[in-house]
Description:
Blueprint: H1 16-29, H2 33-44, E1 66-70, H3 80-85, H4 98-101, H5 109-114, E2 115-120, E3 123-128, E4 143-147, H6 148-160, H7 165-178, H8 190-205, H9 211-219, H10 243-248
Amino acid sequence: LLPSAYRNAERIYPNKFAGYMALAKMKMLLKKWVEAEVLCSTILQSSQYTFQTDPSKVFQKNGTHIIWQLKPKNTNDATKEASLYNFTGAPLSFVLNLNLINTFSSGDLRRQHYITAVPFNQQINYRSSKYKNLAVNNPNEYSIIYRLDEVNFMMAESLIEQNRAGDAVPYINHCRQRAGLPALSTSLSVSAATTELREEKRREFFVEHGIRFFDLKRWGLLDQLISVKPNWKSDYAQWPIPQKELLLNPNLNPQNTGY
């Protein structure tokens, strides 16, 4: 029932295509790949959206690659992401893991535009700098929830799952080539295309709304986190069922493992 047109030129309210994207994510969870492909194709064919070819402009609010974004509470406030991940000197918030940093090749422009090295006491820590404007000096950044780049990866995955790796690779190549990397070959096997998609999606969407976490969960690969998160436990894949809900409805038993 959502309109195709945006209520506001800043794309801060979801429209029909944002709804299609949310629905496509659900179809992928259910492994309904053909239905997910159709939804992604509908978004990609819309004249409202254009792929952003300049990596320095991906996180600026005026891009036509943006499907849905949220504006800060006050005019010129920093985005929540800029505030959360910013630090100078000693890290006071989250740092990027070296495991992620080392996945970027030397020529990858995302390494240049999205990551900042911060020296401190003969050590270098890395922070996300996708959003760059802080304090009250933020004329051009909103928090992007859905962008066309993710639709390309969703489309690619839906095609790979239908054994159509050759059709899928061009959708992965959009972000690779924007990052200054050579295009992947369309002759990749399904297995090789799957590996490339998962690695490219990690490099493209780190620290964006838990996309990586939910991908790993959907792929059954969450336990890979033990290599970068020493406190990770398999039980963390699910939260506990609230005790008050179990008391109200014993049929919800058994409790999830580990709680």
